[in-house]
Amino acid sequence: MKLEKETQNNAPHIVFMGEIRFPYGLAAVQRLTLMSKAFLHEGCRVTVICRKGSWNQDEHKDFKYKGNFEGIDYIYTSKDTHRPNSFLGRNVQKIKGIFGELRYLRKLKKNDRIDLAIVPNREVKHALRYLLFSYFYKIPTATNFVEMASSMEHRTGFFQRINDGLIDNWILKKYNGALPISDRLMNHYNQKSPLKPALKLPILCDFEKFNISKSNQEEPYFLYCGSIRYKEVFNFIIETYKSLNVDEHTKLYMIVSGGSKNETAQLEDEINNSFTTKPIKLFTNIPYEQLVNLYTNAIALLIPLRPTIQDTSRFPHKIGEYLASGNPVVTTAVGEIINYFEDGKTALVADNYNVTAFAEKMRFVIDYPEKSIEIGLKGKELGLREFDYRSHGKRMLGFLKTL
């Protein structure tokens, strides 16, 4: 037992802090999980520290506040994985979580080792706390840099704008290193911290989870997956689909986050009022297995990116999952898309973000189904080479050593 413990403690230990809803959260949590698996693949150990619970009381009822998920140790330092119903309860939980976080890090540092702490670059108050932790406990920190906060169009509040400006231009420089997801973010980090190490880490995906058979689909459909807060993109998809005039034989499915089931159902009715056949179907808060099934059976997966700072900076997590389905991805020549994809070979890439250009690529899927299937399979091959989490473990371990 002693030898086993010594061997275990000699393995590099990476700690993730600052996320909530592990392991059943959205893109940020999925990226954290896949980064963790990449480190595990290289023989490292990983611990995820969540300071508070945020699931509703009826969600994941049996999930323990401390344990191991797919090889990843985790703890909720508030000792509760769910969001209290009362205002007082929620604030008490926040305080418990912060003090619990401090105690747990201190204990971990005393009895084990921490080689790297990876934190999100999102809120000043939390970022400063993690930086203070790292200073007092002498823990190297790197930020998981996936978006330009100050470019986020939906974050318009006065204090949000101050927070985002500080995050992008001041807090960013305080970390020991960074893991930018795109060239634009890599360049930004290198400008702010030219002497500190950075590793571009693109989208990651677990392709094995998509090795399922296609079902006998009664109706062909395009699929879009995104947040309801990106209303402009949401409406762009609907207008593009409407311009095709194919609602009699090809449907549009949309998986939307950010709204309740009742709100989503009401929105679906409003959208379909402009059609006679009610061809648009909306989904929200669906199990991951259903999400994979919808991806796998679509005739094409839609992800238009806009020529904005926000979209040229990011690299949406769902693109990896789209590719894993083996179906063609329809997108626009913006940001990281240009670095990886070739139109007509590994994806269908519209030159411009406009309805006519995007509709042309969707029309190609309908008119040339066999060629579209071939493009989808070539896209999956590209994804396996570039985005499978296992192919990045050695690079990430090398980055850790530079810190």
Secondary-structure map:
Elements (H helix, E strand, L loop, with lengths): L1 H9 L2 E5 L9 H15 L3 E6 L15 E4 L2 E5 L10 H25 L4 E5 L3 H14 L3 E5 L12 H12 L7 E4 L2 H10 L28 E7 L3 H14 L6 E7 L3 H12 L7 E4 L4 H10 L2 E4 L5 H5 L4 H7 L4 E4 L3 H5 L7 E3 L4 H13 L1 H18 L6 H10 L1
Parallel strand pairs: 1-2, 1-5, 2-4, 5-6, 6-7, 8-9, 8-11, 9-10, 11-12, 12-13
Antiparallel strand pairs: 3-4
Keywords:
single chain, 403 residues, alpha/beta, Rossmann fold, 2 domains, 16% strand, globular, disordered N terminus
Strands of the biggest beta sheet: in what spatial order? 3-4-2-1-5-6-7
Instruction: Estimate the helix proportion, in percent.
Output: 40-55%
Query: Main sheet, how many strands, which sense, barrel?
Result: 7 strands, mixed
CATH topology grouping of the largest domain: Rossmann fold
Describe, in short, the structure shown.
Helices cover 44% and strands 16% of the residues.
